[in-house]
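As noted in the main text, all predictions were made from sequence alone. Below is one such record, for Glycosyl hydrolase.
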Amino acid sequence: MPVHRPRFLGALLALALALGGVLALPSPAPAASAVCALSCDTLDPSKARQESFPVPDRTVNGRLLRLHVSEPDSMAWASVDQGKQGDAVWLDRSWDRGASWDGLLGKASIPASWTGTRTLMYNVTDPVGHRRGWVRACADAVGVTCTDWFRPRVCDGTSCDGADPATAARDERPVPATTLYGRTVSLHMDQANGLAWGVVENGGAGDEVWLDRSWDEGASWPEGSSLGRTSVPSGSSSTRTAMFATRDPRGLLYGGAVRACGRESAHQDGSCTAWARPAPTRARGAADALMASYRTDEGWWRSSWWNSAVALTSVVDFARATGTHDYDWAVARTFEQNQGVFPAGGRSSDPVEGHFISRAVDDAAWWGVAWVAAYDLTHERRYLDEAVTITDYVRGFWDTGSCGGGVWWNRERTYKNAVTSGLYLWLTSALHQRLSGDTVWGARAVTAGDWYLGSGLINGSGLVNDGLTSGCANNGQTVWSYNQGLAIGGFTELWRSTGNTRYLDAAKRLADAALSSSALTRDGVLTESCDVGGASCDDNQKQFKGVFVRQLADLASATGSSAYRAYLVRQADSVWAKDRDPLNRLGERWAGGSPNQVDWRTQASALAALTSAG
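Prediction:
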């Protein structure tokens, strides 16, 4: 249950009893829900990457009880030895510092002719539930005994809980201080290292200050309450906590939020600052906030299939641009958990038939783009092979019998639109560059590019409308930024494949039109038509602008254009200054204003802007 206010004497007493080993045999309860990180609960201990014994062993009637932990796996298991048939061992796991627990996890009994046994492994952190656990080993051998509770120390590289604020690289105050009874309580951050601490000033002896740490943006913090709690010493008017980390990479927990809280010595009520997240860099802060929404158990951002492909591409682009490899595991996880078959409603409203393919041709193509990006990051051939499989599927909907070419939007062949044809142009050009000795995909790319230029999708102003009519004319529908961006990127890739300046000139013409037209740029900021006035963008439209800046950045790299680079920088500056809250959540409207939707889709799109700006 979320703890919404520090529970003082009662909470401390409960914690002291739990940590001190005052035990009762847990009553049988419904099985706890399985926790899945990179592995799910009940993994065999033989697969542990490391084994350590972080708390003292216990004995019960001559039996040896031991807690085992593999910190690289963030998993634990229990064993009992020197025992007799029927002796039992299990693991307890608590999400609230030992006040309550999931008991009897992996309970195992010593079989006949054996003298010991062990449980399976269980996760100590729950990335899906945004929580860190405490674990202990327990045994019943004509009497119940448990080890001390253990929780892994939170460390982000060399930055760990408990560090001295005197060692901080910088001291910043990300949110306003709070006051109570004349005292000032402030939150301080070493942004570069993702560390935070609290300070109380203008106080007296006995005043207290502490940090709360939440892994779900301040919705709950049962494991992370009252961190570093310390009192002002006699003769002083201020004190500070130790520093605490806000990222737990081993536990796959990123973007932890913190706040500083304090209490005046003569009163039980306290006061806290607002929650905040650090941002070692702008892009890193955005990436952490995005990864906090990633479903480690399912390997995607839940509820949007193609949007997850674009979000993964944003994460991969961030990793390539910055040399940050914290999220490389998510690339493999997404691939391995989603390459198979899913019924309608499992990942998309349509069935997914394997290899990320469904009746929505453009949805499959977005995954092709993601796996090309993954190949560029990791150089693992399986990702490039998957991109080839997907692009070959998309090629099956290239149809010269209608409009002379172009790719149908869906399996029913009801619409030829810019997005699917733009994706096909980009994919064929990209595959040609990455497949040694290729001539087939290169020829297809030229055919796709030449068709696009003559198709009518590009209007007289150099803007890309949504698609073609049944009579193969420009339908005059909305100019969306992602259609414009895919055309820019597709022709840039085709120029790289062929060296033909005709294609690079086309990409520049499309880019110049986007930067100068109020259909896409207002006051220098990329603006979707659904960003204007009281309008709202739907879940698809929330990610369009990120696609555009990704492709414009590629053109800027190809041309060395200072104008394109300046435009990209302006987008990132506007996002960070006008479209961000203290938790580094980034919204749909890059110029700020309301209504402004904020979710993982808008986060992924804005991350692309921050990455593209360098």
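The two ends are 42 Å apart (CA to CA). The first helix runs from residue 9 to 20. These features were considered when defining construct boundaries for the mutagenesis experiments described in Section 2.9.
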